[in-house]
Amino acid sequence: MRQLLQRLNNNSLYMIIGLLIFGKGLGFYLNRRFFFYPPQLAWMMNNIYLDCSMMIVGIALLVYTCSRYNSNKLLGVLLALVVVLLAIISSIEIEHVIFAHEMEFVQNALSNMAIIAFIIWTARHYSKR
After folding, report:
1. Biggest alpha carbon distance in the chain?
2. Which of 9, 28, 34, 61 makes a 20 to 30 Å CA pair with 44?
3. Model-level pTM greater than 0.90?
4. Alpha helices, H only, the chain
């Protein structure tokens, strides 16, 4: 138990990223009508597979953070998946801002881009201990 707490303390940034992407995936999973424009593609943008993949990647990152296993390649793949999923969500939100004139999505898109920058910085400067 002591080693687990030490690993969580040493790798708190990865735990935060894992919880964040899991929470975003859960939020999108619970809100099935979040994206609406264009109406013909709303089913694709509110796809359950995207939501579940966000939750799975978040859980995988949390499990990796808690485990003794240490692989920069696996960590890079998990962080890259998080960035790709957030980039997809950000592009959909920017599309809503530009074409549907829904200014509420500006804050979401900007916060997602800030999170992407944080993850890229973390991947560059921080390795699992």
Report:
1. 52
2. 61
3. no
4. 2-10, 12-30, 42-45, 48-66, 72-100, 104-125
- Give the whole-angstrom CA distance, residue 17 versus residue 19: 6
Question: pLDDT tens for residues 19-56?
Answer: 999 999 999 899 877 767 776 777 777 788 988 999 99
CB-count burial class (<10 Å; 0-12, 13-18, 19+) for 30: exposed
Nearest-angstrom CA–CA distance, 25 and 110: 17
List the chain domain ranges: 2-125
d(CA 106, CA 37): 15
